[in-house]
Amino acid sequence: MLETLTPVAAQGLFQYAWLMVAIPAAVAALLLILGKVTNSFGHWLATLAPIASCVFAVIYFVDLLSMSPDSRAVSLHLYTWIASGAWQIGVGILLDPLSILFALLITGVGSIIHIYSIGYMAHDPNRRRFFAYLNLFIAAMLILVLADNYLVLFIGWEGVGLASYLLIAFWQERPSAAAAGKKAFVMNRVGDLGLLLAAFTMLAMFSSTSFSAVDAGASKLSLGWATFIGFMLLLAACGKSAQVPLQAWLLDAMEGPTPVSALIHAATMVTAGVYLVVRSSAIFEQTPAAQLAVAIVGTVTLLVGAWIGCSKDDIKKVLAGSTMSQIGYMMLAAGIGPAGYAFAIFHLLTHGFFKANMFLGAGSVMHGTNDDVNMRHYGALAKAMPVTFVTFGIGYLAIIGFPFFSGFYSKDHIIEAAFHAQPALGILALIGAGVTAFYMTRLMIMTYFGAKRWEPKVHPHESPAVMWIPLVLLAIGSIAGGMVLNGWIGSWLSVVGADAGEHATWMPEFTWLGVVTLVVVALGVVISWLVFRKDVPKEAPAQVTVITTIGRNDLYGDAFNDTVIVRPAAFLSRAATAIDDVGIDPAYEGGGWLVSKLGDKVRHIQNGYVRTYGVTMALGVVLVGLALLISRLV
Amino acid sequence: MTSLYAILAVILFTIGLVGFLVRRNALVIFMCVELMLNAANLLFVAFSSHWGILDGQVAAFFVMVVAAAEVVIGLSIIVMISRSRRSTSVDNEIVLKG
Amino acid sequence: MMLIPMVTGVEVTFWICAVLAILGAVGLVTFRKPVYSALCLALVMISLAVIYASLGAPFLFAVQIIVYTGAILMLFLFVIMLVGVASEDSVTETLKGHRVAVAIAGLGVLVLLVLAVAQGVHGTPVGVDSANTSAGGNVQGLADLIFSRYVIAFESTAALLITAAVAAMVLAHPELIKKKAGQTQMAAARLQAYARDGVDPGPRPSSGIFARHNSIATPALLPDGTIAQESVSKVLADRVGLRSVDELWGPHDEVLAAIETAGEEPLDVEDLDWDDDETAPGELEPADDHVVDETADEPAPGEPDTTDDQNESEESHADAVAETPADEEKRND
Description:
Chain B is mainly alpha-helical and 98 residues long.
């Protein structure tokens, strides 16, 4: 049985929890409204906002830590949004072990990325707008995770979608960026539909959308409705977290500035789907079908992302594929059930650190090579950019699951849990781990080792301190995150529905599965090293295997969407237009034409002579009289 | 006997109607309207006498009052139109043309 | 015994009045002058009033005469006078097929109404005498009804009449569309008209003053002997028509002719007096010409002329006489 917390009303400092959201939102509004006035100091102000929120988050985290485990949930009712009959939908903040972890991640990584962006965007003419959007994102994301019901969560959900759109299309002068923004926005709408339907169904079923009401009422839900809500939530999660089949937007989203990719499309927003599934654990507990679907979607995405990661030459797209893959792990864990929730969140946190670290590292590399993203033009950058190399290397070790690095703990747990739940999924997850090692090693070799394949006039150099200090901070997180959280997170999250699991410590237990995983990872690394230690051609080879071609084309995700959705929709709309043009328009226009021509004729009756009107009236009287008379006679 | 009065009233009414339709001078048209009203009054009085009740006469009285009010308004409109158009012919109001 | 239906006074009244009323109605529709139409309408109304009286409605008889014939018709006559008594309807119909349509409509209405009222008449006539006597008289009977059953309608007519009176004042009141022009503006406008159209900026000439005609309807003569159109108000000119030069000079010619014939005979004392002042009337102009010596202006032999100097000044323009017939033609155009 699930343990659910009954939130207590906020007291003391907790009454100011809304400031966590309000500060970045206010700064975003300020920067956007005041405009050029804030050009000179806007980025500093915008960097302070998430730091302030982070301070709040830390304070609340410590407060929650000091509470007894079964009372670690604080709710703050702000106001009643909708009061209609039995429906009382409030706007409120819920601080519990799950949401505070997210708040910490968002504000912590967010602050670091803000600092990094000061350096990265130093020469962009629209720096102020960029920072305003970043703050808008922070505010929306905090609304998403701090909301105490699904409708308010939806506001945040839409807010991050908007911020994501604005930031992907930040360099709107590039058609590709504008198109990528639109693509992300539209594909997210599909997922949003799922969330809305889920929320409406909850409203119909429970007369409320608050988490506590849903948790309490879920067990009484019929299987059909539970499955429906579960699948709708999964659809929402797929849209936001770029899971198959709604994965196609994430790769294009790399058109945005690299800090955006790090913050939104790696560390925070794309993990909202995982948060949603974990938050809705009460619903998923009722419906094994939806739960299994979550696990399968996660597994498929895990492999798809890895496949794409293997075949791309664009460093950011490799990382994007890797992100999809890692989120696939999280979804898989979330789909396993209570045994996996804690691991999903654990991996989410560690991934937030090491992936943000690597994205920022990639940004640093691009910064040093005139914004070139093609790994075939890199090579031997380890010496040119030592700090970037070292921090990136730590991220690399973390993601492949090198012992004692953060990914090692979280990913091993997931694979292990998957094996216990569904051996087939476990094997696939294991293969995914090997492939991850393969493509990440490829990335490392192509970028930092081998021969110099730099473009002319490119002189790689280390980034300024404002950029590499965040790298260092994140690298520390990538190393230590796993060890620190490993023994603690299971029990911390147990109160929100996760299994505490066996008592774990910072010292991993080397089970046989752990050893197998290590072997598979080592195999991936070695194969990759054998393949790519040779000279890498500067131009991508045209003669490649089918597998590579499929991977380069994102597994034909776009083509699939095009064929299955876009073309039929376009055909339908063209057909509708044609029917409109041929059938409906002429009918209306012909009717109008007829009336107008008739009017041309009939208006001559209106000759302007009152006497004619009089005669007409008199004749009318006669006619009516005759009619009456005839009706009398008949 | 009453039908004779009725037929007289009908004849007067019809003459009034025809005059109303053929004449062009607004004043004469107006007089034709009065003629029609008088025809109706005659019918009222005749039937009042026929049935032996006075309500018909009261109705005729009211018709006269209303006719007085109507004449006042109508004539002032005619005066106003003739002042601006220098004519009392209804055919001149051709601005009504569609 | 009585094969011939008894002819009562009521029937006699009806037949006389019916004929008069129909004649009046036909006259109302056919006369071209609105004044005649109005008088015909009066005839109809009075005939109907008499019929009312014969039908036991003395109150309506009085009201018909006083209110309808006396007040309303007089109002009609006033307005006819106000808007132009001279306007006559032309006989020709301008609208195509209008008369046919009117004939059809009139006939249809006639037939339908006859059918309708014929259906309404049944039973024997009762007459209102008993109703009148039971109420103590016709007026009392009507008053009973008006102030009891129809009191609300009666009160409404009061409001209606008040509204009508106010509305008539509002409608007939001439609105000043723009600010009244002052003397300066009028002078400027007059000079502008002169500059633009050549309209004489001076005052209009006064009406003609002749020994035999001095009403304001008499036109003055211009120096060239033609009529000064401006000297008579347009309304009067339309109503009465301008006197022609012939008409004005006619008496003159007669007198001149008389003088010429009298020249061979001794004249009266007055004639002699008048003749003495004259230099040589016979020499100046031939008698058959329209324009004659101003002395011929004096028609009555008994009246001494005191305007010699004036007449002499006109004399200097006598050479323009030849133009007169042409001018007359122009005027006739």
